[in-house]
Specification:
With 130 residues, the chain is mainly β. Helices cover 6% and strands 45% of the residues. The strands form 2 sheets. Strands 2, 4, 5, 6, 9, 10 and 11 form a 7-stranded mixed beta sheet that branches. A 4-stranded antiparallel beta sheet has the order 1-3-8-7. A hairpin with a 4-residue loop joins β7 and β8. The longest helix is centred in the N-terminal third of the chain and has 4 residues, at 26-29. The protein is globular, with a radius of gyration of 14 Å. The model has no long low-confidence stretch (mean pLDDT 95).
């Protein structure tokens, strides 16, 4: 069973909004989901996976400069879900978006590194036309 499942991607026009959701598998996370830091990354062909946003188990949030003020990450521990509300989408936001989970004590200093994440979803495509 895939530990994280993303949904909500699609084709939109510049300026539109999308809301991505990620559901964490009960088999993998059980009642421990609230202990995980959660993040969204994105990737385009030929490029490395890029940090987008993260939310600690404590609900402190982090954003990349490219999405700050436009995207909002949130979590619902009761539903084992993390969401990414994306407003004011731009063509450069086009990518496959991945959900990821990590358990690290030094997360405040490492949240933007893809290699610190223990679990990943399969991704959802977001395409923004100009």
């Amino acid at each position: 069973q895939v530990p994280l499942v993303e949904s909500g991607g699609g084709l939109v026009q510049a300026g539109d909004s999308l809301r991505l959701s990620c559901v964490a598998s009960g088999r993998t996370f059980g009642r421990t989901f609230s202990n995980y830091h959660m993040a969204w990354f994105r990737q385009t062909p030929g490029k490395e996976r890029e940090f987008v946003a993260a939310v600690k188990y404590s609900t402190i949030t982090y954003y990349s400069d490219s999405v700050k003020g436009r995207f909002t990450i949130s979590r619902d521990n009761a539903k084992n879900t993390v969401s990414l509300q994306m407003n004011g989408l731009k063509p450069e936001d086009t990518a496959v978006y991945y959900c990821a989970a990590a358990q690290r004590t030094d997360y405040s200093n490492t949240y933007y590194w893809a290699r610190v994440y223990d679990y990943w979803g399969q991704g959802t495509q977001v395409t923004v036309s100009s």
